[in-house]
Amino acid sequence: MDADVAVIGAGTAGATVALQCARQGLQVLCLDRRDLEEAGARWANNIPAWMFDAADVARPQPPEKLGDPTPIHLFAGYGPERIVVENHGCIEVDMRRLVDRLREDATDAGARFVGGVTVRDFDGEVLSTTKGRFRARWYVDASGLGGAGLVDLPSPRRSDICTAAQQVHQITDVGRARRFFADHDVPYGHTLCYGALHGGYSVIHLRAHHSGRIHILTGSIPGRGNPSGRHILSDFVRTHSDWVGECEYGGASPIPLGRPVDRLARGRVAVVGDAAVQVLSAHGSGVGAGMMAAKILADSLADGEGVEGYARRWQRRYGGMFAAYDLFRRFTCGLDTDEMAAMMRSGLLHPHLASLSLRQVAPVPRRLILPRPTEMVKKPQLLMRLGSTLARMAWVALLYRRYPDEPKRVADWANRVQHIFSEASSDLPVSQPETSPS
Q1: ∠ CA 46-50-52, rounded to 5°
Q2: How far apart are CA 141 and CA 263, in angstroms?
Q3: Lesser CB count within 10 Å: N end or C end of the chain?
Q4: 351 preceded by cis ω (within 30°)?
């Protein structure tokens, strides 16, 4: 036996699995197809602070920590309707440094990492790779979208894949940069966010730092006929080249959107992170979820519950929230900027609810009251879609709390969940993109 646990993927989820399992005294081997210096995300990302605590990972400190939470000014399209989200609790993190730290801590705890390894075959007992054959008691697929082929995973539809891009650029003219934010009545250093520019599920997220850099995050669903996140980012940089300068670092990645994989464990294999669709679909964030899944997996193995224990624990604790937010994501995919603005005016899309999504916390039903219902009455079809979405969200959250004890009962449980999702079609008309302001 080469290891107790063999992990495929050395990004945040895989490196955290290696760290937590090694802390439990397990022998860990972590493999990645890339060189270790390039493994994992290589850009800046916002992560709720509480998720580090839940994952038993120390909160980032500078220079890994790029900034404290600042207010987010979320506009419906290019405005003028907006909400301001202040209490979201998200830390801006340099993902390169976070992945490096997790890997270094795991190595110090006894885990072994090998880069430049491609998985060729897995027969359920032995893992065949370009660097030999490995045996382990348990295997963990943390390799990202689609997985490494250790188990059969559902292939996401093109309409359920977000293409996200993030870059950190130099600011070449601070005066122009300040005027850009002032023109939107957004204080310099706060975050400006355009939503629903290219369909309901699209965003340009901008934050200028006093260090002389601007962090640009974009995302969309090209499978719904929209430009990619990378294209949206490049277009913004080109349009504002009078003050947005050279790119210092960044990257782009496809992100699976959907409810978590029904079976997170099969035989001796556990699936974590993007491979398990442990992504909060409302905005496509999965870093914190993958780290928390890693902690739950390590605890389950150490407690003698195996990979099936991990599946039960994660689905019952977090699966319902992630599935419910995916139902809301399907609703938002059909929004245009006018509908998003109407939701803001009605008070339904208000700062508290937006902060819950950003913090990745389940919404509180008593908060879902329209302070100004006349705005939504003007759009009866939107109101009906919203009402049915909220009802399904509550029902699916209840089903996940009843995730089966026995693996053989998962299929029947999954059919009941799927019935709810099949009624919530995301195949809604794609809104026309707004024209960028001059």
Answers
A1: 75
A2: 13
A3: C
A4: no
Q: Locate tokens 């082929």: which residue? A: 149
What's the rounded Cα separation, in Å, for the pair 228 and 225? Answer: 9
**Up-side HSE of residue 240: CA atoms within 13 Å toward CB?**
26
Q: SS3 of 19, please? A: helix
17-36 b/e (C-beta count within 10 Å ≥ 16 → b): bbbbbbbbebbbbbbbbeeb
Residue type at 348 in one-letter notation: L
Distance CA 326, CA 320 (A): 10
What tokens does 313 get? Answer: 């624990």
Only one residue has tokens 């003028």, namely: 80
Q: What pLDDT, on the 0 to 100 scale, is given for residue 132?
A: 94
Task: Give the side-chain half-sphere CA count within 13 A for 401.
Answer: 8
- Cross-strand pairs, 105: none
User: pLDDT value at position 428?
Assistant: 47
Which mean pLDDT values do the consecutive 10-residue runs of the chain (438 residues) have? 93 98 97 94 94 97 93 93 92 96 98 96 94 96 93 90 96 97 96 90 94 96 92 97 97 94 96 96 93 98 97 97 93 86 82 88 62 61 82 93 94 95 61 42
Which CA distances in Å does 6 have to 148, 271, 276, 397? 13, 12, 17, 32
d(CA 29, CA 22): 10
Cβ proximity of 8 and 140 under 8 Å = yes
pTM metric for this prediction: 0.92
What's the DSSP call for residue 189?
T
Residue among 233, 395, 239 nearest 327 (CA): 395
CB atoms within 10 A of CB 210: 10
d(Cα 45, Cα 60) in Å, to the nearest integer?
12
Which pLDDT belongs to residue 427? 40
Determine what percent of the chain falls in helix, strand and coil, rounding each to the nearest 5.
Answer: 40, 25, 35
Q: What does the alpha-carbon distance between residue 198 and residue 436 come to, in Å, rounded to a whole number?
A: 11
What pLDDT, on a 0 to 100 scale, did the predictor assign at position 81? 93
3-state SS string for 239-292: HCCCCEEEEEEEEEEEEECCCCCCCCEECCEEECHHHHCCCECCCCECHHHHHH
- Checking 334-338 for CB contacts under 8 A at 24+ apart, the result is 334/200, 334/385, 334/426, 334/428, 334/429, 335/196, 335/199, 335/200, 335/431, 336/196, 336/200, 336/431, 336/432, 337/76, 337/77, 337/196, 337/197, 337/431, 337/434, 338/76
Q: Which amino acid is at 410?
A: V
